[in-house]
Amino acid sequence: MADSPMVPQSPCGLPWYVAGSQVLGLACVIITGVWMGHYRGGYAWDGSSREFNVHPLCMVLGLVFLYGDAILVYRVFRNESKRSIKILHAVFHVIALIISVVGFVAVFDFHAKGKIQDMYSLHSWCGMLTFVLFCVQWLLGFTFFLFPGASQWLRKSYLSLHVFFGLVLLALAVGTCLLGITEKVLFSIESTYSSFVPEGVLANALGLLLVGFGVLVAYIVTREEFRRPPHPEEEALSMHFKTLTEGGSPSSP
Amino acid sequence: MADSPMVPQSPCGLPWYVAGSQVLGLACVIITGVWMGHYRGGYAWDGSSREFNVHPLCMVLGLVFLYGDAILVYRVFRNESKRSIKILHAVFHVIALIISVVGFVAVFDFHAKGKIQDMYSLHSWCGMLTFVLFCVQWLLGFTFFLFPGASQWLRKSYLSLHVFFGLVLLALAVGTCLLGITEKVLFSIESTYSSFVPEGVLANALGLLLVGFGVLVAYIVTREEFRRPPHPEEEALSMHFKTLTEGGSPSSP
């Protein structure tokens, strides 16, 4: 199939970068699962700290790994129709949103049952900001790119903002996870953290892997040579809008 | 002067975005200064916690505010020669580097005198990573763009990586500051942080302002319409290299 003239090959290096991002992303999810499962007592839904443990796992899985993969669909599925990829992008984001809502419910429920104050920390402020902006970004993306009412001019005007804030939100999500890791180790193992105990080193390594995943996804998405080639009809549309707009750039994200 | 045909005006909105970034950046520096000066006992160089207080101020001033401004010189000084702006960019980074070295010395000296373990936290790992990559980025930037030996082809090949990793490092620096804020409030005011005491709210607000500064600098730098217009001789050079390279983009950062 790869040699067929009908199916253009991926740009040199792209499959390796995508594979690398998946290894890093899965490592983040697995290490979070092991941290909470092995070192912090496992999972439950009973208001105990084991319910809290659902929170980090859902956030890393939803708002980082699946969110990053939702961004990557435009680079991975290069030969599908643009509408199919848009729908896949939106569906990935909805799954990420649902999983992160479960994560939010877990921590608020744990706080309510343990009579712990909500929303006082920088981690919680950044997390709520990320979540709200994520919902706004999804709604705007749906309205502009999937809802039939938006004009091509509006879509083109909004596209670069959508891409920029998509990457800002990924960075915010990763940053918020790092804040959560720091809070968790200081609440749980503050007295032994400075002795390089395995749990502390694992938590730090998770932080660096999350940074690595975010940087790799951002790198793949921003490389000009990795952009999805427009299909013939999209190219015609792009050329048309280049004549209408000054200094226009290609309209595929 | 602004109406002279010899001095092209800035693109619509750019001065406002740059002014906004300066307000946010200065607010970050001032709030850090007030936090350490008013709430944490002020500054000294005696191995006490007042020496530690030099660390956050230097890091926010050097690795965030001046680092961000070093990036912005390409958008602010639009009509100077490219070589002058390159030198200004490198000099700003050297000042940022010197200030951040003072910040590093402050915290290592405080740890040494207080017999506190170094480099065990995620904050310290991210901070050291940022600092080392910043030095590598500076050296590579100097070698490729200021040292006369590098060919135009090498410069052009490296430029997009330099810009990408420059923004990654700004994000890492901001993220590391947020981790430092979280560590500091949990070490200093853990028992009252959840009661929304003024110091905790100020620290959280500082975190959000740092995020705002980073996002605004990244926005200004990545907008196509805010790019520095190439001077006639640079344009000729750019056109020349466009014929040599496939799908070449303009060579000004």
From TrEMBL, chains A, B:
This is Transmembrane ascorbate-dependent reductase CYB561. PROSITE patterns: CYTOCHROME_B561 (PS50939). Coiled coil: none annotated. One of its GO terms (molecular function) is transmembrane ascorbate ferrireductase activity. Its main location: membrane. Keywords: Cytoplasmic vesicle, Electron transport, Heme, Iron, Membrane, Metal-binding, Translocase, Transmembrane, Transmembrane helix, Transport. GO terms for cellular component: chromaffin granule membrane; lysosomal membrane. The chain crosses the membrane at residues 12-34, 54-75, 87-108, 128-147, 159-181, 201-221. It holds the Pfam family Cytochrom_B561. Signal peptide: none annotated. Homodimer. It is a multi-pass membrane protein. Residues 20-222 form the Cytochrome b561 domain. The keyword Heme applies. Its cofactor is heme b. It is found in: Cytoplasmic vesicle, Secretory vesicle, Chromaffin granule membrane. InterPro entries: CYB561/CYBRD1-like, Cyt_b561/ferric_Rdtase_TM. The keyword Heme applies.
